[in-house]
Amino acid sequence: MKIFLKSLALFVLLSSFTGGARKDFIALKNTSFGTGEVLEYRVNFGFFTVGKASTVIEKKIFHMNSRPCYKVDAFGETLGFVSWITKVNDQWGAYIDTAALVTHVSYRKIREGNYRKDEIITYDHDKLQAEVKVLNKETGAYGEPKYYKTPDNVRDMVAGFMYLRVIDFDKYKKGDTLAISGFFEDTPYNMKIIYAGKDNVSTKIGKIPCHKLVPVMPDNKLFDGENSITCWISNDGNKIPIKIQAKMFIGSTGIELVGFKGLRNQLKIVQ
């Protein structure tokens, strides 16, 4: 499960887009999501369900850096026999600008076996800088901050997940490549994602029309090949991640949508 969460985090990283070089926030057209949305997923490893995950957009609007923000949280935890081996209960959250979908504050609460990490990051979009503070487990207080340079209009993983949902995939043809920039911890990334066309995906909810995306993975010790991850995004007004499948050196893992509420648009399901 810990390996899966890392692979899921890496995929979301691929969606942590940054805009071009500009100082002013530019509003993005968003008709895909709003406050009060909840998405629920099951996590599988091979044929076994090993955990569950969810994303939650709070019902109220918050203000950070004098800007209105969505508060979005992503949760993941192990279930059943896997929890006897290593219990995972992670939370990733962010305050995301409602207009530009950039991150103003993000945080992580990691609980994986005996490993613990509490982190809070504040983004200064004028200085292109992130202030990172980590909780000291002995004192119970946050330590001295560390500062990292960031790309313009930086987005953390959670904001990248939300930004993925405002892309107009109908403008792409099968085989087209999306050029993507991202930032995670202290490192900027340049990745490519191949638009692999349209597909109907069978789920517990029903058969859902989707856009199919294949990130081009660099050489690594986790995933089996450069086309080892596939993501299906609903081909409707919501653009919900329906399914993510990853081929790893130790087996196949993935997540699949099993429940939802508070959608901005009706989910398209075909027979």
Number of domains: 1
Whole-number mean pLDDT? 83
Total strands: 15
% residues in beta strands:
over 45%
Q: What is the end-to-end distance?
A: 33 Å
Question: How large is the radius of gyration?
Answer: 18 Å
Tell the overall outline.
Answer: globular
The number of helices is: 3
Q: How would you spell out the order of helices and strands?
A: HEEEEHEEEEEHEEEEEE
Helix/strand-derived class?
mainly beta
Major sheet summary line: 15 strands, antiparallel
Relative helix content: under 10%
Low-confidence stretches: 1-5, 10-22, 219-226
Question: What is the structure about, briefly put?
Answer:
This protein is mainly β. Helices cover 9% and strands 48% of the residues. It has one domain (2-261).
Summarize the SSE layout with pairings.
Blueprint: H1 2-14, E1 38-45, E2 48-57, E3 62-64, E4 67-78, H2 81-85, E5 89-97, E6 103-112, E7 115-124, E8 129-134, E9 146-149, H3 157-163, E10 177-184, E11 187-202, E12 207-216, E13 229-234, E14 241-248, E15 251-261
Antiparallel strand pairs: 1-2, 1-15, 2-4, 3-4, 4-5, 5-6, 6-7, 7-8, 8-9, 10-11, 11-12, 12-13, 13-14, 14-15
Helix pairs in contact: 1-3
Question: How would you explain this protein's 3D organization?
Answer:
The protein has helices at about 1-15, 80-85, 155-165; strands at about 40-45, 50-55, 60-65, 65-80, 90-95, 105-110, 115-125, 130-135, 145-150, 175-185, 185-200, 205-215, 230-235, 240-250, 250-260. With about 270 residues, it is mostly beta strands. It has one domain. The protein has a 15-stranded antiparallel beta sheet that branches. Strand 14 (about 240-250) and strand 15 (about 250-260) form a beta hairpin. The radius of gyration is 18 Å and the shape is globular.
